[in-house]
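Appendix C: a fully annotated inverse folding record. The material below is reproduced so that readers can follow the format used throughout the book. The structure is listed first as C-alpha cells, followed by the designed sequence.
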C-alpha cells in the first residue's frame, strides 16, 4: 500500500498523462484526498490494468475532498511546447478545485509555481504517494476516454488501442495515411529528443 505524504498541510497530488504522445491532448489531474483515505491497490496508473483503473476512478471521485482535470489540446501544445502545455494543464486542474490546497506534490522533476502555493516535485511520486497516484489514475482514464472518442473520427490510427503514443503501429499508420488535425505538428523529427527532457 502506498504512503500518504507526511504533512499537516492540505495536500493536493498532481500528475499528467499523454505528454509523450504523437496525437491528442495532454491531460492533468489534481486530487485532494481525505486524511483517512486508503486503498489496497491504488498505485501509479502505469502499474495498473485498465480494469483496475476503471474501478479506482469512481472510488477516487466519490471519496476525494476535491478533484479536477485540466486538458490542453494538440494545437496549444504546438503553440507553446509540450513542457509549458503540461504546466498549463496542471494549473487548469488546480484552478478548478473546489477547495484550495496549501501544498502541491507533483510527479516528476519540473513544475511552474502556481500562485503562492508551495510545491514539491517528486520523481516517480505516483508510485510513492497516494495523492499523486490518485491524480495519475484520473489523468490516465480521462485521457484514454478522449482518445477513444477521437478514434471514432480517425479509426485508421487505432487510438482506441495505442492512445496516440508512438507505437510502431501508430507511426506506420501516419506513414501510410498522413497525419490529421489531432496530431502534434511539433512532434516530428525531434520527438525522441524532446522526450529526453522530461525523463
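Designed amino acids, in order:
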Amino acid at each position: 500500500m502506498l504512503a500518504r505524504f507526511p504533512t499537516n498541510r492540505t495536500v493536493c497530488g498532481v500528475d499528467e498523462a499523454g505528454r509523450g504522445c504523437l496525437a491528442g491532448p495532454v491531460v492533468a489531474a489534481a486530487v485532494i484526498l481525505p486524511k483517512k483515505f486508503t486503498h489496497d491497490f491504488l498505485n501509479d496508473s502505469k502499474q495498473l490494468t485498465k480494469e483496475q483503473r476503471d474501478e479506482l476512478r469512481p472510488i477516487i471521485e466519490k471519496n476525494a475532498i476535491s478533484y479536477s482535470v485540466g486538458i490542453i489540446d494538440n494545437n496549444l501544445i504546438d503553440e507553446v511546447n509540450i513542457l509549458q502545455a503540461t504546466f498549463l494543464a496542471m494549473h487548469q486542474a488546480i484552478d478548478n478545485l473546489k477547495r484550495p490546497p496549501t501544498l502541491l506534490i507533483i510527479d516528476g522533476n519540473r513544475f511552474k509555481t502556481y500562485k503562492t502555493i508551495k510545491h514539491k516535485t517528486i520523481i516517480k511520486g505516483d508510485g510513492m504517494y497516494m495523492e499523486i497516484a490518485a491524480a495519475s489514475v484520473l489523468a490516465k482514464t480521462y485521457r484514454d476516454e478522449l482518445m477513444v472518442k477521437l478514434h471514432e473520427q480517425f479509426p485508421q490510427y487505432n487510438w482506441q488501442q495505442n492512445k496516440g503514443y508512438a507505437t510502431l503501429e501508430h507511426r506506420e499508420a501516419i506513414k501510410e495515411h498522413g497525419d490529421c488535425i489531432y496530431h502534434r505538428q511539433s512532434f516530428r523529427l525531434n520527438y525522441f529528443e524532446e522526450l529526453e527532457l522530461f525523463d
